[in-house]
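1st attempt posting a full record on here, be nice pls
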Amino acid sequence: MKKIISYPLSFVLYFLFLGLICVFHPIQYVCFNVFGYKAHKKSVDILNFFLLHLLFVNFSTAEIENRANLPENKPLIFVSNHQGMYDIIGITWFLRKFHPKFVSKIELGKGIPSVSYNLNHGGSVLIDRKDPKQALPALKKLAEYIEATNRSAVIFPEGTRSRTGKPGEFASNGLKILCKYAPNAMVVPVTINNSWKVFRYGNFPLGIGNRLRFIIHSPIAVKESDFNTLFKQTEKAIKDDIIPV
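the predicted structure (as tokens):
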């Protein structure tokens, strides 16, 4: 029954989603080129507010549980499990005061209204996971950027999103580069639950009645431990709060 109901609701949600990203594309362009970074970021924040709350159309919600008093004016590296598109939307909105910049796959850098423009102009980096010669300098550039600006980076060590909610194996290389070139940063584990359920049937129809939850764990200072210990602590914090499938 839920799947049957989800067909018309999903059509409405997709229609509104596409409309929003098309409308905000020229808005982003004007904000960035005329008014600069702050205006552009504000436009991205507003866009993601609306995109996140489109979940109401499918009787779904998203909430944040912040278990940490995160420092401002300090570089942060958010490390999260990856379940779907709404991971990025939720992090962008809920953690907006930390200016999150994403490590994203290079394929998203072209052809998607608003999304591609923001990835190319908002401070995020696009990496080719099959080409280390391209990926490593891009990660270094992002690390140096957050170190200099006291902003934040977001990385999904799984790489590919989980379609069942069960976390995949975490790769350490990307986080290692970020930590190396942002030595004053703090690593913040983030657990995301139920985002995968939005796409439980694939891209259409969308799942309905879901409660997306973003859990922010206590930060770990890069300088306070060796990388292997930091990586294990981060992975454990994330995975311990993932709801079993």
